[in-house]
Amino acid sequence: KSDSVAAAIVKCVNFSATKHRSQRRKDPEQTPYINHPIGVAYLLVEAGVEDVDTLQAALLHDTVEDTDTSHQELDDTFGPKVAGVVAEVTDDKSLHWRERKRLQIIHTPDVSHEAKLVKLADKLYNLRDLERCKPLGWTDTRVAEYFKWSAQVVAGCLGTNKYLEGELEKLFTLRNVEL
Ligand code: NDP
Ligand code: ZN
């Protein structure tokens, strides 16, 4: 049973690493996928977030969407608060990608403060990744579309965290994308 904050965090890192173990990012170097959830949680640390549930949710945020993990499994292992935040940032993969992206824009303003923090850090991480290098098979147009869509999601999170929003704003400004 993990009852210290440190133990709770290490438990999440280990759970997420195990679940994502065979996955890679879309960058040409095919970085191990786990770098992403760890990096998203670390952006929250840099942003001054100290709430353990939020940091745990960040570490787990893609496990239900992208691995065999169920909501019930997260609820049993990490409790309803953490599982609930992950659920709020999980897309329904049975829907067409256009519909998923449309629903993210519509639903984001109504999610919890904790879920908005994870969404801001997730978008910042992915946009910095795209800025660093283009995924294999992506055109410049597709990258530009991803920036435009992200700005619409981020617009629904404004007023949540100054640091994350400021860093995102810098990236959007460089690309002439309106927030
Ligand atoms: P996208 O295909 O739009 O890819 C972006 C997502 O990939 C990010 O949100 C991120 O999600 C993840 N990712 C992994 N590696 C990187 C990286 N190096 N840089 C940035 N992001 C990375 O996401 P979907 O999975 O929502 O879309 C799936 C399908 O939709 C695709 O198979 C594609 O065919 C189709 N599609 C086509 C488009 C087009 O042709 N214009 C546009 C969008 C989708 P996470 O945080 O979850 O890791
Ligand atoms: Zn993510």
From TrEMBL:
Enzyme class, one word?
hydrolase
This entry's Gene Ontology molecular function terms read:
guanosine-3',5'-bis(diphosphate) 3'-diphosphatase activity; metal ion binding
Q: Please give the PROSITE patterns that the UniProt record associates with this protein.
A: HD
**Matching InterPro entries, A to Z?**
HD/PDEase_dom, HD_domain, MESH1
What are the names of the required cofactors?
Answer: Mn(2+)
Q: Which UniProt keywords apply?
A: Hydrolase, Manganese, Metal-binding
Q: Which domain of life is it from?
A: Eukaryota
* Record field: catalytic activity: guanosine 3',5'-bis(diphosphate) + H2O = GDP + diphosphate + H(+)
Key word Hydrolase present in the record? yes
Gene3D superfamilies according to UniProt: Hypothetical protein af1432
- Could you say which EC number(s) this protein's record lists? 3.1.7.2
Q: Where is the HD domain?
A: 33-127
Instruction: State the family named in the UniProt similarity comment for this chain.
Output: Belongs to the MESH1 family.
Record function comment: ppGpp hydrolyzing enzyme involved in starvation response.
The molecule here is called Guanosine-3',5'-bis(diphosphate) 3'-pyrophosphohydrolase MESH1
In the UniProt record, the gene name given for this protein reads hddc3
